[in-house]
Every structure is written in C-alpha cells, then in structure tokens.
Records
---
Amino acid sequence: MPEFFKFDQIEYHMGAAGRTVKVSSDLEEGSILVIKGPSGAGKTTLLRILARLLECDKGQVFLQGQNWLSFTPQLWRSKINYLAQKPAVFNGTVLDNLKKPFALKIKKDMFNLDEAIDGLRELSLNENLIHQDARTLSGGETARITLLRPILFKPNILLLDEPFASLDDNSARSVMEFLKRWLENETGRGIVMVTHNDIYKDISGIKIQELELSEPGVN
Amino acid sequence: MDAGVIPISNTQLALSVILVLITGVISAALRLELLKPLLWGTVRTYLQLTLIGYALTYIFNINNLILIIVIISLMCLVASRTAVRGSPRAGRYSMLLGFFSLWTSTFLVGTIVMVLIISPEPWYSARIAIPIFGMILGNSMNGIALSLERLFSEVKSKISEIEALLSFGASPWESVRDCVKEALRAGMTPTINSLMVVGLVSLPGMMTGQILAGADPQQASRPLPVVVMLMIAAAVAIGCLMLVLLYYKKLFTKEDAIAHYV
C-alpha cells in the first residue's frame, strides 16, 4: 500500500535573496498536514508548488504512489486543489461562483445543486444566499463560499492557505468541523493547510500532522 | 493627370510648421513635455515623406516583384516594432510574433486584393501595391498594438481569477478566454467604428486623396474606397486574431502555469 500523499526533497528559492528551502513530508489519508513558520518562510510558495502553479528546483510529489509528472497539470490540479489566501470571486451570483469550475472541460456539467445547498447549510450560511451577487458578500461569507467551491469540486487533496484569516473564532471552529466531516465522509481525501490559527487543536478526533518551515535546510 | 493636383509651395509648407509650433508653445507653457516629440515627429515626417518620394519613383520604375516584397517586409518590420513597443514585458517574442502576424495578415489580404479585385497589369504593380499595402499595415499596426496592450492589462488585472481557474484544472485557453475576447474587441473597435461612420464623419484617406487631386466625388467614393475599407477591416481582424492566439500561450510556462513576467 503506497503512501497517500508524499513530497520528497522539494527544493526551492525564496525571493531575490535566493534562500533555499528544502522540505519533505507525507500525509496520511483522512488527515491534515498543518504547515507552520514565520512569514517569508515559504509556506504559500510550497502550496503553490504542490499545485504545480510554480516550479521548484528539485524534488518530486506522489499521490497514491503515482509521480506528479505522470499527470497532466490540469488533471493534477483537479486532484490537488489549491485555494489562495484571497480567493478569486467571479462576476455573478454565489451560484455562478460555485458552478464556475464545472464550466471547465475537466469536470464539465458535473455540478450538483443539492450538494451546494447542503454545503451552505453545513457552513451555517443561509441557502437564500445562493442567488445573491457574490461581490456583495461579507468577508466571512466570501471565505466560506470560496471554500465550498473546491469542496464541491471533490479533489483528493485540498491545499488551503490561511482559510481562517477572515473568520471569527466561532466561524473558524464550524469551518474546521466542516473540513473534518469532509475528510471522514469518503476515502482518498487529505488537507494541507497553512495557518497561524490553532483552532484545530480544539476539535477532538481530528488527525493532525505538523510541519515547521523555518531556517534553510532544517527540514 | 497633374492638372488637378493642388500645388504646395515651400512657403506654404513652412507656414504649416507654425501650427506645430503653436501646439509646442502651449505644451512648453503647461510643461506637458510634448515639445520634443512633436518637433522630432515634424522633422521625421518631412524627411521621411521627401525621401519616400524619391524612393517610390525609383521603385515604381523598376517594378520588380522581389523588390516589392522586400520593401513591404521592411515596412512590416518597422510597423511591428512600433506595435509592440507598448508591451515591453514580453521581450523579443512579442516583436517576432508581431512581425509574423502583421506580415501574414498583410500579405494574405493585400495579395487577394491585388490579384482578384484590383488586378492591375502586372498584378504586383508597385504603383498600386505599395500604397495599398501601406494602408493595410498602418491600420493593422494600430489594431495589434491595442490588442496586445489590452491582453496584458486584462491578464494582469484578472490574475487571481485566472489562477483560480487554473487550480481547478483549466487549460490556459479556458483560463484566459475572456481576456482574449477583450483584447480582440479592443483591437477591432477603431476599425469597426470607422466602418460605421465612414462618409458621415470622415472620408477614407484614399478618397480624400482622389478628391484633392480633382476627381469627381461620385466616382471617387465608389468602388475602390469601399474595397479599401473592407480590406483594412479584414486585415486588422486577421492580424489581431493571429497575434492574440499566438501570444496568449507565451503568458504561460510549459507547466501551464502563469509565467513569472506577467
């Protein structure tokens, strides 16, 4: 049984200073890998490399034993889905935004409205929100809607960059519970998350691994 | 034939410089820093048009197909350099792609016009080919410059949307399709506008020329100016389309991620 998700000797440069970051880790099915470290340590860069949105100097990533280069970038990104710290909001309603990824060839017309409405409820959002102009949402609502979008897309790995940044403690806790349920609902799922918020420590029964990015060459 | 041409003496030419000077003085007073480019532009206009007068006499007399192709290719080179100047981020590629798009669209449309529509004897007659190709190039150049500039600014302002689509597994084309559409629209709008208002606001350059040279307006307005307008529209459309379609891929790395220089 190959490891679920693993990155091996990933090496990359940070900024003009050219500091080299070397990092290896793996992730068990159904668990969360929390990446920590001071700003400028290269946490976001690592997530973007894992999603193949940036190229690294060295190293390889494996999903269920398969090398990342054996996938097309499109197929890889649909399985290893990166959500930016400030996710894009598209013109149109919340529904338009949730449907947006399903206009792409890779999962064309696989949108399921019932799942979307269930998701809104689970994230303690009013289901009437679905017809609201997405640009008029509050910061907290936007954060949850843009999190629901990749959830509906059903990737294997969610790469989350500071998902709690614009949420208060209560919303953060309910989002964390929501992510825990998402991990448990089906096999073949995992989360890699950059966060400064320790809220996950309050949730019982969640499988957490931590990875500290600090000085060059430590990991 | 020369009877109708309006003669302009050197004194009259000098008087027209006064118009530029007035603008220059205003610019200097308001510190718009337009005086230098205006003067330089005036000198270049005078020199280039005087020299091209001699060159054209020579070229028309020789009337050699190879020479005409070389001359028009040189014109394309100058035009593509001017067209991509506004988008420095793309470096040499934009110059190369700009030249290729301009050259192909110009020769495609120009040759069709020469061979099938005007069909002079011989079909490549320099006397007709050079002005026709010049008109096509001048317009395509502006269209391409606008398209390219818009493509860059659209992609830059929508970068987070584009990356979001990419991270859901969008192909490069799917992720920038809206930007490409805007870029084409920007490049085509001046041409479409001029098709709409031609005759109402402005007269086509060649019709103006014919009328100033003493031609009867009824004859001068048809059918050649119509051909010219349509051929310009076609060339601008093909040129912009080619450039933008060739170009958008350069915004991506070989891993289909947004390139760092965008």
---
Amino acid sequence: MLKTPEWGMMIVLYFFFGGIAGGAYFTAAIADNVGGRRAARVALVGYLLSLPLVALCGLLLIADLGVPSRFLNMMRMLKFWDPMSLGAWAVGVFGLFSFVSSVMCFGPFEHLATLRRRIGLVGMLFGFFLASYTGVLLSATAQPFWSEARLMGALFLASGASTGMAAVSLILALTGDGPGHGLARVKHADRYSMIIELVMLALFLALLGSAAKPIVSGHFAPLFWGGLVALGLVVPLVLDFVGHGRKALGAVSAVLVLMGGFILRYVMVMSIQS
Amino acid sequence: MARTLAMFTDTSLCIGCRACQVACKQWNELGMEQPEWTGTYQNHAHFTDATFRLVRFIEAPGASPSGDLAWLLMSDVCKHCADAGCLDACPTGAIYRTEFGTVNINQDVCNGCRYCVSSCPFGVVSFNEHTGTARKCTFCNDRIHNGLGPACAKACPTESIQFGFRDELVAKAGKRVESLKAMGFKDAQLYGADQKGFLGGLNAFFLLLAKPSTYNLPENPKVPQRNVVVDSLLSIGSAVLVGLGALLAFRDRGKGDGGGHA
C-alpha cells in the first residue's frame, strides 16, 4: 500500500558525501581549535576536502529532482519541523562556511587565524547537521523500518565523523603527513568515532528488534553484516589497534571505513525500496 | 477558512461500477495506462500518477454478516488528512491546504523531490515521470471553486460517494452505521470521521463493513514528522560523543606526538 520515494544511487551518494563533508569539516574545526600547530595540516585538509564534497552534494540533490530547474523552489520557505526543508538550507549554509574556512587557510588571511577558528566552531554545527539530518529525514516518513529506527540520525552522524576522519587520514597518508604527526591524531580520533558508531549500531538494532529485518536478514544481510559490520567497522578497528601506526595498514583501514560508510547508506536507503 | 468540505465514501453502497474512476480520469485529463492483472476486477493494484480514484475489490473470508466470504468494494481516494504528512514534508510549499480544508499540489511549484511520496501513510501521492512532479487527487479543486462537487461524487450512481459539508456528512454517516448494524453488519464502522482520532480526521472519510486492515488500510496511521524532535535530540547526543572523542584525540598534551593508543 505504501509508496517508496524511489530514491536511488544519487541519494545514497549524497548521503555518503554529505557525511564525509560534515565529518571532515568538524575534524578540521576541532584540530584547528585545540590541535595547535601540529594539527595545522589536518585543519587544512579537512576544510579543503569539505568544499568540493558539499558542492557535489548540491549537484547530486539537484540532479535527483523531478524538475531540476526548480531547485530554488526549496528556498521559498523554511520549515523547522521538516528535515527536507532544513536540509536544503543546510547544504547551502554549510557550503558557505566550507568556502570561507577554505579560503581563510591561505596567504592573505593567515593573520586572521583566530577568526577562522571561531568560524570553524560555528560551521562545525552545520557540518554535524549535514551528516545527521539525512537519517532523521528517513525516519520522518511513513515507511516501515525507516520510521521505526530511532537512531538513524545518530548513527549517520557517527558514521559521518568516522568516514570524514578516514578521508582526511587517507589524504594525509598519501600526500605526506607534514611535521607534527597530525595523521596519528586523526587516526586516534577516528578510532573513537568507529567505537561510537559500533555502539550506536548495536543500540540501533536492539531498539528496532524485529523491525530491523530488511537489513539483518534476507537480500541485504550479507552486505550489512559482511560489508558494514565486519569489513567496514571491526576489521579497520583491529587493523588500527594492531598496526602500531604503520602507514600502509592505516590507509587500508581508512579505505575500509569509507567503504563501510557507503554501504551503511546504501543498505538503509535501498533495503526497503527494492 | 470556509466551512470544511468533505467526501464521504459509503462502501456499503458501492457496486464496483468504477464510474468514479472513469469520471476522475476524464475530468482531470489523466493519461491512459496499461491495465494490469491483479487477480480480481481491480485495476490498478495501487494509486498511480494517473489514477486518483481507485475502486478496490476485496475478497474477505468470514467477513460477511453470515460468516461467509464477503466481497467488499471500496472506492478509495486521497484522504485529505487534517494533519497531512505530505503537506508537512513538502519543502517547496507546492503542497497546500485550500480554504475548504482539502490538500492540493501546485504543479507549477513542485520540483519532484518525492519526500511527500514517502510521507503519505496511505500510499496516495505518486510521482509522474513525464512532468517530474508529485500527483494526487485534487478534490477537483477547479470544480469545488465553481460550486460543483468532485467529478467522482457527481458520477456515482448509488451515492456511495457523497460530497458536502463535513459536519453534515459525519452526522449522516453516523446514522448510516447504526442502521447497518441493525441490519446485521456488526463490523460496520467509520474510518477517519473523528476529528479527535488519527491524523486529526480525514476530509475524505469512509464507512467500512469490516475492520480497516481488511481493506489494507492502516488501523492507526501516524504523522511521520512526529519522529523529528526525538531523533534530532538523539543525533545531538551522538554529536556530543563524537565531539568529545575528537577533543580527546586532538587536545595538546604538551609531550610526545600525542597520537599513541588510547
């Protein structure tokens, strides 16, 4: 009887990139504010990574519309109780923060570092919003499973943080860490995020009980248990703990976390629509 | 706001002729669709972007007054809920409430995000691939603004679909339930007539001869947006945890590289 919205890969990718963008920006803002000079490169990479990703997010959202040329109609109103309305605004506002923070990392603005840090603290809130509202959006529908999942937003947020940190760590590992060992700190923070995500996921399943059926059994179960829980969370955590900071293992673990983040959104969005 | 208008569909009077379905198609210039085999006379299986009125043919074992198989007929339509999930979900304002209490989609404003499709508790709102917009019953918005009733109600030969002021129709419907019960239809009941009931009451409400689930209707549909506050608070909790983790990891401890294991 119920109709699904037929959201496909573009929306899954949007959820995924939105999570990374929010997570990377938040990591950058924290690193910028409390990390001191050692974490300067973390801040730079985080801010700069969030910018193209949020731009891509906007494009994906527009391309998925039935009438893309009417995307500005979203700006006709702001509904505080409507995740879709708030989300459309948040992409725009977060994009602005991302742009300003990125620009302020360079040459002529370097003496304004204090201002940049303050801006980062505010923009971080929008980053959190971008990473988590997509989960709340799914739960504020009439669909079974989505509407019964109380921790969808909380889970997406933890996943956004872990994938954002994984992406930043991967870029640091590939382009050179620079002085100060910021990479080790991002990995350290990512471990916390992954542990929080695992706990959230366990609570998420426990609260859902039998309503979790679309993901824990059937067609999507191998992807959920194998791709997300095992390869996307447990294995990278183990790799990080036993790897003792070895760069190659760290990079492998980051790639796995990113893959897990994508699978999380894919499974959540697609399982009840197919 | 003008006095609330309503449609009352008395399923006990429906003969399954589908005049309503055809009249709706004609008046609203809805396109032809490929028929589909549903196992009964019903066509289509669900509402579509070109089927806003849909006569359901339901075979329900044991649901007749004598305990035999009941052949239930129901002309289904958008419920025009007082608390409408689609309206709350719409980020463009394309979905609006008219002065008569009905819910309509402005086709010139809708940009096809499809959030309303997922937010309708009854699976009414449908996406049209050609226009790229969401479509549903308009309560014949053009007709009611010109003193005419909806095309489906006009076409119904048995007055199974009645159109009028909501309060008058609810009173009438209540009496009809009583007389049906006296006739032995013990499960006769109204669906969505009560404004204190689910979704603030439906402006297109029904008289059913069996319990709602027999008709594939939800027993107690809820407004989807009820989850927003709790889920947002839980997300904020998650943000605090993740934020604390990052603070711990990045805080300058003044010695070593600070990046060792926790």
